[in-house]
Design a protein that fits this description.
CATH architecture of the largest domain: 3-Layer(aba) Sandwich
Order of helices and strands: HHEHEHEHEHEEHEHEHHEHEEH
Shape: globular
Structural class: alpha/beta
Strand order of the largest sheet: 3-2-1-4-11-10-5-6-9-7-8
Strand content: 15-25%
CATH class of the largest domain: Alpha Beta
Radius of gyration: 19 Å
């Protein structure tokens, strides 16, 4: 169990702000840096994300993009990239394709988004003949450190699948469970969110929530404890769950929140970040390697935490 997961096991709220992310970084340090294809790092924020993670000893960046633009971005950021490998490409589309190719060849074990649109990178990732698809649907998971919540909180999917169907949600849940296990939450409690906690035939998300729980009963989803539909308050507040008379090992103590669609997940993650002061690290799972999605709005702490999370997943896969 990682130090990050040990915090979850005790259900203790860290006494200092951002303590969980510091434990996450500590857990990821110490091993060899993981070779990482950084796709189109052509602005200061993208270069900083890569070089900060390298300075932490987490990754070994391979910078993929137009040579002149990358060097100009490094100069603007005030960082020295002379010791890093640079693979020159003519434009962002070619950068995405080349980054994926580096993973397919085994030269890179992680993929990291730079200054290009997420859908452009993901188009290369999911390409039928040249991409990084597996038998699992690809999904995004936020690992959030929410002040006042007594355990790490995973939210999925808030970035990739716009309106997932039941089969896709099965993979979304499985991806999140396996990520929770990597950070030491060995039997994560999974809340399938809806607006209400009862099955309503007029609300398809409640029916899908119930179906996912039955899929877990039948071994189609493994490794976690599922309950749903659950409204958000019933998922995270023991008092709210008790008031509704919900008897469940998940209600009020969720480790993973599975949202109905991307819009709900995006709003929930941003509400926690901007109204509650939460940190939100995130990675994409379900491809051959973990994919790090960073944003210009991310803090240095969040960028490093996203890299640390991907590194832990990559190492866990190698050890399996």
């Amino acid at each position: 169990m990682t130090e990050f997961g040990a915090l979850e096991a005790t259900h203790a709220v860290p006494s200092a702000p951002h303590a969980r992310y510091r434990h996450l970084l500590a857990s990821a340090k110490g091993g060899a840096p993981v070779p990482t294809a950084v796709v189109h790092p052509c602005d200061a924020a993208a270069i900083l994300a890569a070089t900060e993670a390298a300075a932490e000893g987490l990754i070994m960046p391979i910078l993929v993009g137009p040579d002149a633009k990358i060097r100009a971005a490094a100069e603007a950021a005030g960082v020295d990239i002379s010791g890093l490998r640079l693979v020159s490409t003519p434009h962002s589309h070619a950068s995405a394709a080349q980054g994926v190719a580096l993973v397919r060849s085994g030269e890179a074990q992680l993929l990291m988004k730079g200054a290009l649109h997420t859908d452009e990178l993901m188009s290369a990732v999911v390409a039928a003949d040249s991409g990084l698809r597996t038998g699992r649907r690809i999904s995004h998971v936020y690992l959030m450190d929410v002040p006042g919540y007594p355990r790490p909180l995973l939210i999925t999917d808030a970035a990739i699948n716009i309106a997932p169907d039941l089969e896709t949600k099965r993979d979304i849940v499985q991806n999140a469970i396996e990520l929770a296990q990597v950070i030491g939450v060995l039997k994560p409690r999974v809340a399938i969110l809806a607006a209400v906690e009862t099955v309503n035939p007029r609300m398809p998300t409640t029916i899908e929530a119930a179906a996912l729980c039955k899929m877990a009963d039948r071994g189609q989803i493994v490794g976690g404890l599922l309950d749903g539909p659950l409204a958000l308050d019933n998922a995270i507040s023991p008092d709210a769950a008790a008031e509704k008379g919900i008897v469940s090992v998940v209600a009020g103590r969720a480790d993973i929140l599975v949202v109905p669609d991307l819009e709900a997940g995006n709003m929930l993650a941003k509400q926690l970040t901007f109204l509650s002061g939460a940190d939100a690290a995130g990675i994409v799972l379900g491809a051959r390697v973990p994919i790090i999605l960073t944003s210009r709005a991310d803090s240095a702490r969040t960028r490093s935490a996203s890299c640390a999370l991907a590194v832990l997943v990559a190492r866990a896969r190698r050890a399996a």
